[in-house]
Every structure is written in structure tokens, then in C-alpha cells.
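Key result, reporting period 2: structure in, sequence out.
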């Protein structure tokens, strides 16, 4: 997981909570390492918590964004908060904000590096046995859509003192053996990241950014005789393009608004002109 740091050698890594404060957003609730906010990406009409920030891990999750919600690291947050800005413009904004914070808080103390927890899978199994997971799928409208690839994933982490903390989520496996998990307050990957591939044809390939996109469209007539590739992460756009070169017909399902996958359509139309783009 990455953290943003400016080119000034004495600057500390910028946290999501610090950035939110600089942008005028104050938490309505705090507890331990978690800061909880009302709507940050839309109009605030009440004090309902929709955005949770883990200040220790420097991660966020907003349950109001899309069917499964959305979250990630600092850079994922900035791309969502400023969707119309380029990567260079976002970096300049962050540098400017960090300079302003540094002027207020000097002298700054160096922080010890945060140890990212190492999650381990305990077990996986069919849906319907864990109420927390079932409730999450029902609340997000995925209970009726979920196929057999969606599993209950139980995982844990152990701290330096040997204390264990258990977690559970709905998830699916990628082709590198990792598990892409989704829960009320967390979205991420346990184990190595990778794409998810469902083999059905050696000549036709349908590509989806996220697994939920595939679930919503899996009854399409185009998919009856096509293999399916789910990227899971924007980092695999180039890898999906290389995979698609081996297929005679390529169906690209993508959101017209782009989002984290804004370069997906452009790259495919440029390098694989025969790609058929199907709006989600």
C-alpha cells in the first residue's frame, strides 16, 4: 500500500485523515484508529456515517459509492475526490496542501514506519453461513446476483504480541491465488493480486473491470460462448490487453464515465481496433 510524500525531504507522508481535515472535512465519530465521516463525495443531509478512514493503515471505504461501495489507499481517494484532474494535477494539489500543513506544524517529527498487517486466510466456503456476510450482500443488492465463485472468506492477522484478530468478507479468487474481498468497511485483496479468469471459449473474450460488473451482466447473450476476464484492479489494464491479443473477438464492458479505468477503452481501441465496447 503506498503513501504520498512530496519531494521535500523533511515532509512526512500525507494521511487521508490529514488531507480530509485540510479540505474542511471533520469526523463525526472517532474510535481507536478509525475516523468516521458523513458524506464527503456528495451533499450532506444528516450525520449518517458513510466514510470510514483507518488512520493506521491509511485506507478508506465509502459505502455510498456504487453497488459495493469503494475504497483503497490515498491515491485512490484523490482520484475519486478529484475525478476531473489528471495525475499530475492531483500531485501538484497534494504538494501544495502538504506545504501548507508543514508551515502550520513545523517542526515536524518523523514517524515510525507503519507495519502493514499480514492477513492470512483461515478458510473459505459457500455463502449463507455467516450472518454478517449475508447481511452485507443483501444490503448491497448482491445476494440474488452472487454466483458460486462468490465465497465466504474468513481471514485473520496476528500482531507482534501474538494477539489475533479475525475478519470475514464476501470474496472471489483471482488467478494468482489471492482473494478479492468486499465487506461493509473494507475492500481489498488478501494474498497476491491478480485478474480473475473464467474459461469458456478460446476465440471470444469478454472483459470487465470489476466482478460485480460481470454479475450484473452475466445473462447477456454475448457471454454465452465467451471466456470472461475480470481485471479486479486498474493496474492490470496492460496485462488484460496482452491477454486479449490471443482472442479473435474481444468484448469490452466498461463504464462510460471511466473512473479508475478511464484509460481502458482508449487503450483497447488504439491497440485492438476490432474491440467491441459495450457500456455498463
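The corresponding designed sequence is given below.
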Amino acid at each position: 500500500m503506498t503513501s504520498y510524500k512530496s519531494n521535500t525531504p523533511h515532509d512526512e507522508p500525507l494521511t487521508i485523515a490529514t488531507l480530509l481535515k485540510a479540505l474542511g472535512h471533520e469526523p463525526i465519530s472517532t474510535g481507536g484508529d478509525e475516523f468516521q465521516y458523513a458524506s464527503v463525495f456528495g451533499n450532506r443531509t444528516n450525520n449518517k456515517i458513510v466514510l470510514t478512514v483507518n488512520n493506521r493503515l491509511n485506507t478508506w471505504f465509502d459505502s455510498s459509492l456504487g453497488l459495493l461501495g469503494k475504497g483503497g489507499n490515498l491515491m485512490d481517494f484523490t482520484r475519486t475526490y478529484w475525478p476531473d484532474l489528471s495525475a499530475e494535477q492531483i500531485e501538484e494539489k497534494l504538494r501544495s496542501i502538504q506545504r501548507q500543513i508543514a508551515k502550520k506544524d513545523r517542526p515536524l517529527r518523523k514517524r515510525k514506519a507503519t507495519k502493514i498487517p499480514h492477513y492470512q486466510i483461515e478458510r473459505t466456503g459457500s455463502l449463507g453461513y455467516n450472518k454478517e456476510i449475508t447481511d452485507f450482500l443483501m444490503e448491497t443488492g448482491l445476494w440474488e446476483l452472487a454466483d458460486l465463485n462468490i465465497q465466504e472468506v474468513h481471514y485473520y492477522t496476528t500482531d507482534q504480541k501474538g494477539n489475533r484478530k479475525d475478519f470475514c468478507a464476501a470474496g472471489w479468487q483471482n488467478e494468482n491465488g489471492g482473494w478479492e474481498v468486499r465487506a461493509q468497511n473494507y475492500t481489498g485483496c488478501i494474498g497476491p493480486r491478480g485478474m480473475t479468469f473464467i474459461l469458456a471459449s478460446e476465440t471470444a473474450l469478454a472483459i470487465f473491470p470489476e466482478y460485480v460488473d460481470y454479475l450484473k451482466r452475466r445473462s447477456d447473450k454475448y457471454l454465452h460462448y465467451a471466456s470472461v476476464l475480470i481485471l479486479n484492479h486498474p493496474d492490470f489494464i496492460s496485462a488484460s490487453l496482452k491477454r486479449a491479443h490471443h482472442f479473435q473477438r474481444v468484448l469490452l464492458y466498461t463504464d462510460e464515465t471511466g473512473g479508475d479505468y478511464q484509460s481502458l477503452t482508449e487503450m483497447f481501441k488504439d491497440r485492438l481496433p476490432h474491440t467491441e465496447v459495450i457500456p455498463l
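The two ends are 29 Å apart (CA to CA). Helices lie at 16-22, 74-81, 87-105, 131-139, 211-217, 237-244, 264-271. This case is discussed further under Risks and Mitigation.
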